[in-house]
Amino acid sequence: MNKGKVTLVSAGPGDLDLLTFRAAKAIAAADVLLIDDLVDDEIVTLKAPHARVIRVGKRGGCKSTPQAFIQRLMRRYALQGRHVVRVKGGEALLFGRAGEEIAELAQAGIAVDIVNGISSGFAAAAGLGVSLTHRDHCQGVIFVTAHLRDGTEPDWGALAATGMTLAIYMGASRIDSISGALRHTLAPDTPAAVVQWAGTAREKRVCATLGDIAARAAQAQIASPAVILIGNAIGESVANEAARSEPVRRMRA
Amino acid sequence: MNKGKVTLVSAGPGDLDLLTFRAAKAIAAADVLLIDDLVDDEIVTLKAPHARVIRVGKRGGCKSTPQAFIQRLMRRYALQGRHVVRVKGGEALLFGRAGEEIAELAQAGIAVDIVNGISSGFAAAAGLGVSLTHRDHCQGVIFVTAHLRDGTEPDWGALAATGMTLAIYMGASRIDSISGALRHTLAPDTPAAVVQWAGTAREKRVCATLGDIAARAAQAQIASPAVILIGNAIGESVANEAARSEPVRRMRA
Predict the structure, then answer these.
(1) Does the residue B46 lie in any domain?
(2) How far is A44 from chain B (nearest CA, A)?
(3) Tetrapyrrole methylase domain location, by residue (chains A, B) (predicted)?
């Protein structure tokens, strides 16, 4: 029997419009689809009629499908000769547990293809109408998760001291303590934004400063999934909007 | 007369397969296309018959089209009521001068839409078969340009000390001095890779260590455009390949 394979497909923020052609082709070619719960339901319209769909939701806090079980499923179907497509929200290679999945599949001798996608930090910046790395302001951007596996915090002071834009994932529920920690290094008027469901029709965003972002996010009832963006490059959003008669529009083609 | 608008479209690494549907729709809707020289020529097959194509190549070192001229062109056509689509390689919001373009257009009262794409750092990681943020190894990833506008260098020591994966753009020509600077903080056996033309048919990659990456890149004649990836998460590439009978395959659907 032929050995199957696994394709890790990054589904982007949600809207099917933000899928790549390569991702759509991979989904159409799948025998078995394992679909994350941050992925839009509509994605199954792209699959082949015979393909089996398994939803493997696993949101922070309520682990409906344990990671080990997802990995066993992928391995089992691939060893049966199936083409397994694992569809992950955002970009699979950024905070997606893809590293563990690839390593385990590799150990079982299973080939893995990876298809890139749009991560929510980029979608959030597009919605705000800003570059993450405006060269008047910074030399780069740091993507960091606020949710460390050992329960500790990233070294916010060291990250802030680099002067780079910060894109903080999985931090919405602790935005108060994170912004507090960053204020030890950054001025309270440092531009900050938080964007929930970035890149989807239900996107919700707040532009503020490091000093008031936590209060403003609470007021706007911003919750997970959301990305927090901090740095002077993000402040261009307000400048760009103020310069115009109409707000930044996101394309809805 | 209606005021036109500008859409900044991120074309990804090159292969049209890595475009998003939204990007393809924007290109099809354009009256005027301004196309960067890192973008695959084939992209014009997606345009409308009437659309005008202007190539605005501007590679590091040989500035064939000055940035100010590109910005003037965009503004002029938009103020004539045209839909201008500016097609940039990679992700427009990462090291793409998009910040300056958006700000100038906003000042002229011109609406700007942004369409995200796949940046070469992600495409490089997909080719290597690694996550940029394997949680056994790091808390995130830093995207930094080695090419600072004032001719200075990023603070390599501070970046290395964060323990994060480093994705260094525009550093191929100075990989020797960059890896040397990083060795003040990181061990010489820290995994390192350099990937030229990531995500395209002519992709070329070298997996090595911080100690020998510069020599190995020179040997393999890796040149710009290339991205350098450094950190323990990148070392998974070798482990994953070694565990299997066949190398990591990139999907060519």
Answers:
(1) yes
(2) 16
(3) 5-213
CB contact under 8 A, A129 and B102: yes
User: How close are the terminal C-alpha atoms of chain B, in Å?
Assistant: 45
Which tokens belong to B49?
A: 């018959």
What is the rounded CA–CA span in Å between residue B209 and residue A153? Answer: 29
Last residue of a domain, one of A59, A82, A115: A115
Q: If 0-12 CB within 10 Å is exposed, 13-18 middle and 19+ buried, where does residue B153 land?
A: middle
Paired strand residues for B226: B196
Residues of A that are catalytic: 36, 58, 170
CA A113 to chain centre: 19
Is residue B116 within 8 Å of residue A122, measured between CB atoms? yes
Question: Residue B175 domain-assigned?
Answer: yes
Check B117 against A118: CB less than 8 A apart: yes
Residue A62's domain spans which residues?
A: 5-115
Contact between B31 and B45 (Cβ < 8 Å): no
Q: Name chain B contacts of A113, Cβ cutoff 8 Å.
A: 249-251
Does B108 lie in the same domain as B162?
no
A124, A238: one domain:
yes
**C-beta atoms of A149 and B135 within 8 A:** yes
- Token pair 């919750």 in the structure block, residue: A223
- Are both A139 and A82 inside the same structural domain? no
**pLDDT tens digit sequence for A213-229:** 999 999 999 999 999 99
B33 and B110 share one domain: yes
Domain end position, chosen among A96, A115, A134: A115
Say whether both B28 and B131 belong to one domain.
no
**0.90 surpassed by complex ipTM:** yes
Query: What's the structural domain count of chain B?
Result: 2
Distance from CA of B107 to the nearest CA of A (A): 5
Shared domain for A126 and A40, answered yes or no, is: no
If you measure CA to CA, which chain A residue comes closest to B104?
A240
Amino acid at position B245, single letter: S
Q: What is the pLDDT along chain B (253 residues), one digit of tens a residue?
A: 578 999 999 999 988 999 999 999 999 999 999 998 878 889 999 999 999 999 987 554 455 678 888 999 999 999 999 999 999 999 999 998 899 899 999 999 999 999 999 999 999 999 999 999 988 888 999 999 998 778 788 999 999 999 999 999 999 999 999 999 999 999 999 999 999 999 999 999 999 999 999 999 999 999 999 999 999 999 988 777 766 544 444 444 3
